[in-house]
Each structure stands twice: as C-alpha cells, then as structure tokens.
Amino acid sequence: MPLFYTQNINETTRLAIWHITETEDFFRKIYIPITEISHPHKRLQHLAGRFLLQLLDSKFPVNKIHLDGRRPFLPDNSRYFSISHCGDYAAAILSKDTPVGIDVELVTPKLQLLEKKFLTEQEQKLIKGNDSSTSLKRLTSCWSAKESMFKWYILGNVDFRKDMIITSYTENGDKAGKITAIFGKELNTNCDIEYRFFDDLCLAWLCREKPYH
Ligand SMILES: CC(C)(COP(=O)(O)OP(=O)(O)OC[C@H]1O[C@@H](n2cnc3c(N)ncnc32)[C@H](O)[C@@H]1OP(=O)(O)O)[C@@H](O)C(=O)NCCC(=O)NCCS
User: Fold this and answer.
1) Are 207 and 193 in contact (CB under 8 A)?
2) Is the full-model pTM beyond 0.85?
3) Are residues 157 and 119 in the same domain?
4) Any atom of ligand 1 within 6 Å of the Cβ of 103
5) What is the mean pLDDT of residues 23-50?
C-alpha cells in the first residue's frame, strides 16, 4: 500500500500521492472506467487517480464522475478535485469548498525544448539558477505550476505564455517553495501555487476561488 505522501492543505482540502506498484486488479475493486483506455500503463495511472480520490474521502462517488472531454467532474458539484499522473506516480487533490488544481512531473531535460513556449524572457530570467540542475528543477516546477493552474481554471483557452505570468519564485530550502502568478486574459487574478520535490518528482498545486461565477 504505497501511499507516498499526504498533506492537509487546510480544514477542507487534502492531497495525496500514490506510488503505483500494484496491478490493475487492486484498483478495479473500487472503480471500473467508463471508457476503457487501451494503453496498459495509462490505464493503471487512471485507475490509481480514482483510487486516490476514495482514499482522500471514503464517500467520494468515483463511479459518478462524468467527463467533459478529458476533464473529470461530478454533476452535482459536491466536491472539487483534480488528478495528475506521471511515470509510476498518481496524485489527487480534493476540496469540499474550493476549486483546486494539481500536477506531478518528473524532472527531465526534455522540458528545456519547451521552455520558450511556456515562459516569457522575463520569467526565464526570474527562475535562472546558478547551475543547470537548479535551473532544470525550477523549470519543472514552473511547468507544473502552469499545468495546475490550467486544470484549476477548467475553462481551457489558456495560453501558457500570455495568460499565466510568473511574478515571483520563492524557495523554502531546496525541496519546496511558492510560485506566484497573474492569470487570465487581463492578467488580473493573483494565484499562489505551492510546489514540492521528492528527488526527481515535482508536485505543484493550487487551491483558490475561481475568477468567474
Ligand atoms: C489537460 C492536461 C493539463 C493534462 O495533462 P497531462 O499531461 O495529460 O497529464 P496529467 O497526468 O497531469 O493529467 C491528467 C489528468 O488531468 C485531468 N484533466 C484532463 N483534462 C483536463 C482539463 N481540461 N481540465 C482539468 N483537468 C483535466 C484528468 O483527471 C486526467 O486524468 P484522467 O484522465 O486519468 O482522469 C494537458 O493535456 C493539457 O491540455 N495542457 C494544456 C495544453 C497546453 O496548452 N500546453 C501547451 C503549453 S506550451
């Protein structure tokens, strides 16, 4: 039962990461996917995400999840939640009252190829570390932060370079920290995203009211 990490964000919001070492049968005890996913590892990640929701809240109705494209939601909006997976890890965040977004990523130099597509020159300068490994970790946490904002917003149509601008990057030691960003077409919504590293795994999450009703 490799529950890898849990954190209480506040009284109504919790997150967890699962290290996937089980076979599908383990996860299928609580949930059968609405549409079958053909790739075996993607299917396993998907099942692990749903499993985590029930771990965070034993009453979570995983079998009532609907999909809007790939975005999962509960038709009665009784809970806010977000899911992410990467490699052998799945993560979920669940809140009774506040919209949330989560992302997990493994640190990989491949992300450098995308850097200019999701960060402005000013953002690139802001996060530049004194060596390449610091820079790569910072880059990963910024990507993860923007992915978590994208999921939190849910409405899509978000340009990662124009509609989300990182304004500060704070490190609390070398394993965790906070990223602040302005979000939206008018860049008038302030967002605080937290991140944490577990060796090469980066977790980022956001818990904030929506900028619209
Ligand atoms: C939706 C998106 C964020 C998913 O990311 P991903 O890399 O596939 O993988 P993750 O594991 O982190 O997240 C997958 C989970 O996100 C959730 N999800 C999927 N689409 C979503 C959406 N539109 N909104 C919120 N959550 C979504 C699902 O729970 C999914 O897991 P599941 O299918 O098992 O339920 C990503 O595909 C995307 O569209 N990103 C923005 C695109 C973009 O503009 N990128 C360019 C930047 S340069």
Assistant:
1) no
2) yes
3) yes
4) yes
5) 90
